[in-house]
Amino acid sequence: MSHLLRATALCAVLLVSGCAGGQGQSHAGHEQKKTSPAAEGSAVKTAGPATLTKIADAIGCKANVVTDAEELRQAACKSGKSQYTLVTFATDKGKREWLSESKDYGGTYLVGYRWSVTAPSENSLKPLRTKLGGNIEIGTSHQGMEMEPGKGHSEHAQHG
């Protein structure tokens, strides 16, 4: 995976979820919630991948583009108290690579055809899912992990 994909994956998760955690939480495995047939039927279908503007409009915010590269476009936006990271991809393979990397840092994702939205919780993605379709996926939680004294997040995030 390219350095750009890795960097944007990490930035997206850190932007939305941060590194703060509570005690008593453990490493949760990757989880994917499938769209029910009823939800799929009510979801808006698009012929091609959604654009950052279309996703931001569905959220009700303005997309502030932070990365505009050949392989992906990334934007941040805020609606109410929720912060979102929107990413569109040149290829579905690029999306899968980005998600695989991102999920190692936790986060909650709404994933569609060549796009992804990262949000602070599943509840903040449910209304968007109704508008855009897609699947809600949950990354591995690093919250509650004890870090050694003197070690920052960069050392915590390196898993060898």
- Overall shape: it is globular
- Element string (H = helix, E = strand): HEHHEEEHEEHEH
Cα(first) to Cα(last) distance is: 15 Å
Note the total helix count.
Answer: 6
Structural class: alpha+beta
Q: Which terms summarize this structure?
A:
about 160 residues, alpha+beta, seven-stranded antiparallel β-sheet, 6 helices, 7 strands, globular, disordered C terminus
Structure characterization notes:
The protein has 160 residues and is α+β, with helices and mostly antiparallel strands. Helices cover 36% and strands 24% of the residues. The chain contains 6 helices and 7 strands, in the order H-E-H-H-E-E-E-H-E-E-H-E-H. The chain has helices at residues 3-17, 37-42, 52-59, 92-103, 122-132, 153-157, and strands spanning 31-33, 64-68, 72-79, 82-89, 108-112, 115-119, 135-138. The protein has a 7-stranded antiparallel sheet, sandwiched between helices. A hairpin with a 2-residue loop joins strand 5 (108-112) and strand 6 (115-119). Helix 1 (3-17) crosses helix 4. The chain is globular, with a radius of gyration of 15 Å. The chain starts with a helix and ends with a helix. The model is unreliable at 13-46 and 144-160 (pLDDT under 50).
Short structural summary:
The chain is 36% helix and 24% strand.
Secondary-structure blueprint:
Blueprint: H1 3-17, E1 31-33, H2 37-42, H3 52-59, E2 64-68, E3 72-79, E4 82-89, H4 92-103, E5 108-112, E6 115-119, H5 122-132, E7 135-138, H6 153-157
Antiparallel strand pairs: 1-7, 2-3, 3-4, 4-6, 5-6, 5-7
Helix pairs in contact: 1-4
